[in-house]
Specification:
288 residues; five-stranded antiparallel β-sheet; alpha+beta; three-stranded antiparallel β-sheet; 8 helices; 17% helix; DUF6273 domain-containing protein
Length: 288
């Protein structure tokens, strides 16, 4: 399905970073684009904002019988960066990662898995790509070079700022997850990052968080970032309230709030409870 642009305004809360299209233009280069990425995820800084943030939205492709609506995050060199407006599915970051255990004696995972070797990358660029887009639509999605960083558990403050120490393997992908830096760069604050799941994602067991101490579901879902977390075996996550959780959760899944009435998170044994918001760079001409 060819894209149809609309304008969506998000009411935002204070306490995060100014980004959006205007903010992106002030940066030297986006963290991922069709030609180059960088390793600034641990060093990104920006001003906080309580302003309303607006995105163009576009319909492009479909998944599980439902058209996909995307937010347009940036435009550069005839291509537009899109992220799905909703959480589309619930998939572990890596299905070979060590599953969580809730005993006090449970050790942290010893095996680190980078984006380059993760099962979610394979799924996004294989099963999801074929299911969500026609052949023509796939042809309009650019191959994007991505760079990122490994977990930084062993790094000092000095080495954490040195990309040569913690650079992860470079990849080229059509479909990807935002990095930690991109989640901060393109969204003005936590409220802008809040995303709700599709009915299909709910059926797949996506975690639906709680809005407050009244234990009522808020309807929003947590979603993966491609950046490693602080420890080996952890990946960064945007939580259901829009917070960028850089320490991350175990790649096999760890979200659990203890409330049985939010029980979808209890149904997954391998972290399918954390959701997926795919990102793509698309030829802008294919969206009009």
């Amino acid at each position: 399905m060819r894209g149809i642009y609309k304008r969506a305004a998000l009411a935002l809360a204070a306490g995060a970073l100014v980004v959006g299209l205007a903010g992106c233009a002030a940066e030297s280069a986006p963290v991922s684009d069709p030609s180059k990425g960088d390793n600034t995820q641990l060093a990104y800084t920006g001003a906080e904002s309580a302003d309303e943030q607006s995105f163009d939205t576009v319909t492009f492709g479909s998944y599980q019988g439902q058209d996909i609506t995307w937010l347009a995050l940036a435009e550069e060199n005839g291509k537009t960066l899109l992220i799905s407006e909703s959480v589309l599915d619930a998939v572990p970051y890596d299905n070979t990662a060590e599953p969580y255990q809730w005993s006090v004696q449970s050790p942290r995972p010893q095996k680190d898995i980078e984006w380059a070797t993760s099962s979610i990358r394979t799924w996004l660029n294989g099963e999801f790509l074929k299911a969500a887009f026609s052949a023509d639509e796939q042809g309009a999605i650019a191959a994007t070079t991505l760079t990122d960083a490994k977990n930084n558990v062993s790094h000092t403050a000095a080495t954490a700022a040195d990309p040569s120490v913690h650079a992860a393997e470079e990849t080229t992908d059509q479909v990807f997850l935002l990095s930690l830096a991109e989640a901060k760069r393109y969204f003005a604050n936590n409220a802008a990052r809040v995303a709700h799941p599709t009915d299909y994602a709910v059926k797949q067991g996506v975690y639906v968080g709680v809005a407050s101490n009244d234990e009522q579901p808020d309807g929003a879902a947590a979603w993966w970032l491609r950046s490693n977390g602080y420890y080996a075996g952890y990946a960064s996550v945007v939580t259901d309230d829009g917070y960028v959780h850089g320490d991350g959760y175990r790649m096999a899944g760890e979200l659990h709030d203890g409330f049985d009435d939010h029980g979808s998170e209890l149904k997954s044994t391998l972290g399918g409870n954390i959701g997926v918001r795919p990102a793509i760079w698309v030829e802008t001409s294919a969206l009009s």
